[in-house]
Amino acid sequence: MVSEDFLYFIWQFQYFGHIGLKTTNGEPVQVLHPGYRNRDSGPDFTNARLLIGAVEWAGTVEIHCRPADWYLHRHQHDRAYDTVILHVVWEDSGSTPLQRPDGTLIPTLVLKDRTDAGLLGRYQKLLKETGPILCAGRFGEVDGLHRTAMLDAALLRRLERKAEAVRAVYAATGQDWEETVYRLLATAFGFKVNAEPFERLARTVSLKYLQKHRDSLLQVEALLFGTAGLLEEVPEDEYVLALRREHRFLASKYGLTEQILPAVVWKWAKLRPAGFPTLRLAQLARLVVSQRSLSGLCLDENEPQTLLRWLQVTPSDYWQTHYRFGKTAREGASALGEAAARMLLINVVAPVLAAYAEHRREPVYLDRAVALLESLPPEDNRIIRLWQTLGLPVRTAFDSQAALELYNQYCLEKRCLSCRVGAQLMRL
């Protein structure tokens, strides 16, 4: 049995015999336009045009391996599928013909006996390859044009996915861009290890509370450290006592007394001191105090180097000699490093610009997101190095973000035929 991905591929590119094409009911079929692949909910292809019998139809096309999958996926209960004009399947299992709610039949087209066996063989051989990138052994056969096209498509897809996440936060904040960017920045300050508690903290301590105390870095720190649950059971010094006093007052003022996070949510193991959550929170506090508008930091036309300079904040004096409460450290890099600041540009600023482009229906913001990524050096990690060994040029953050998307959303999911590289290999 083939996969639905293979059926999407042969339908999209019409890689099947068209001579004498008929539905299971014997009606002749002529494909005027196969439609456009729909990756959201609803039928698989939209805006298709077909001549079935003597009638020209316009609508959607749904694709399954077997006719019975229609009922397995419960499409009969979804009104979005009332527009289906053709049900394309791999093989006919002799099930009852599909009907629309008005009782009319939905024509079914079977492709198994019309598909080139060589094409199917190449696909099955590709799926049998081992390793995370199935096409690794043949990647060099694909010309640069197709590689570049796939990277472009993957990058735009990645920005759209991230923009969708931004829009979800925007909706959760009551459509407040300042609060949205604050939550995204806070989550990003946790990086992978502490992203979840940072995100919880930002939802609990609103930016509106912090902005009321922008003239006092100590009070902003107190709200963050205290609500984070990091002022309990730590060595007492003058700074800790001052934070506790301020937090007791501010927590009562904003109704946060019962919303303190348990300290156990914060992770320390395997982190370098520069990544400890205490230092990251101190840096976040300084950023909130130093920027009049966090959304403006993302959306205003600022040069990448200016943004990097603004993000490389230096925390209060205490955190220039400490990584944790009560423990004096040797002189170190207390400011947010340039590499970390670049990650904030990649994971917060670019997605916010992409989301704002859709929000305002102004593509110029998407152009700025792309230009920002093109101006930054590429990330360096295991996945990027793997692509480079295959000969994929990764010169900028645009390339590295696209390569990550290609790996995570296509290679790991074995969606080879949704990838232009894989699709090209099927033709060779």
Describe this structure in words.
- With 428 residues, the protein is α/β, with parallel strands linked by helices.
- It has helices at residues 4-12, 69-72, 117-127, 144-172, 177-189, 195-204, 207-211, 217-227, 238-253, 277-290, 294-299, 304-311, 338-360, 364-375, 382-389, 397-411, 420-427, and strands spanning 29-33, 36-37, 45-52, 55-64, 84-89, 108-110, 322-324, 327-328.
- Strands 1, 2, 3, 4, 5 and 6 form a six-stranded mixed sheet that branches. Strands 7-8 form a two-stranded antiparallel ribbon.
- Helix 2 (69-72) links the parallel strand 4 (55-64) and strand 5 (84-89).
- It is elongated, with a radius of gyration of 27 Å.
- The model has no long low-confidence stretch (mean pLDDT 94).
Pick out its properties:
428 residues; alpha/beta; six-stranded mixed beta sheet; two-stranded antiparallel sheet; 17 helices; 9% strand; elongated
Task: Describe this structure in a few short sentences.
The chain has 428 residues and is of the alpha/beta class. The chain is built from 17 helices and eight strands.
